[in-house]
Amino acid sequence: MSKIAGREVRGEFLALQLFKLGEPVSPTDINKHVGYGDYAAKYISFLKNRHGFEFTTQKDGRAVVSYTLISEPDNAEAVRAIATATKAPKQVKIKAVKIAKPKASKPIKVRQSKQTAPLAKAARNVLKDRADAEADRLLAEIGMKNGGEYAGGTYSVDPDWDSMDGIDVANFLK
Description:
This protein is α+β, with helices and mostly antiparallel strands. Among the domains are: 83 residues, Arc Repressor Mutant, subunit A; 37 residues. The protein has six helices and seven strands, in the order ββαβααββααββα. The strands form three sheets. Strands 3-5-4 form a three-stranded antiparallel β-sheet. The chain has a two-stranded antiparallel ribbon with strand order 1-2. The two termini are 82 Å apart. The model has no long low-confidence stretch (mean pLDDT 77).
């Protein structure tokens, strides 16, 4: 609904302001005048069905080019008066607003950070070195490190996994 002088008016009554008997009005003109979007067909439908106005429609294919008012009901002046009737707008009282003074900002305290990160990193490195040394000792103990049967960085359980009593696995799978 649009406001006219402090009063809300339905779109079909605003659209009716554009029409005079026998003069075509385009849907674009109706939509611009009412200002709610692309609802010209809706306004014409309301004027026809609710208020008794009769319109002809000029089309180009499926698109409506214009609407022409061809007859009005007996109460046409009363319907037109709905859109033009005005009420005095309500007077709005304005209250005084107090503006608060800005508060003084407090100084920001800066704390000195402790140098804990390098210490934590050093402790982590010591634990890692100790774990690596323990793993190396255990691998050497079972013969999997430093000259054992499986030396060279591999920890395979079966060194001959790719042979089966003279049968080559590559030929066996073909």
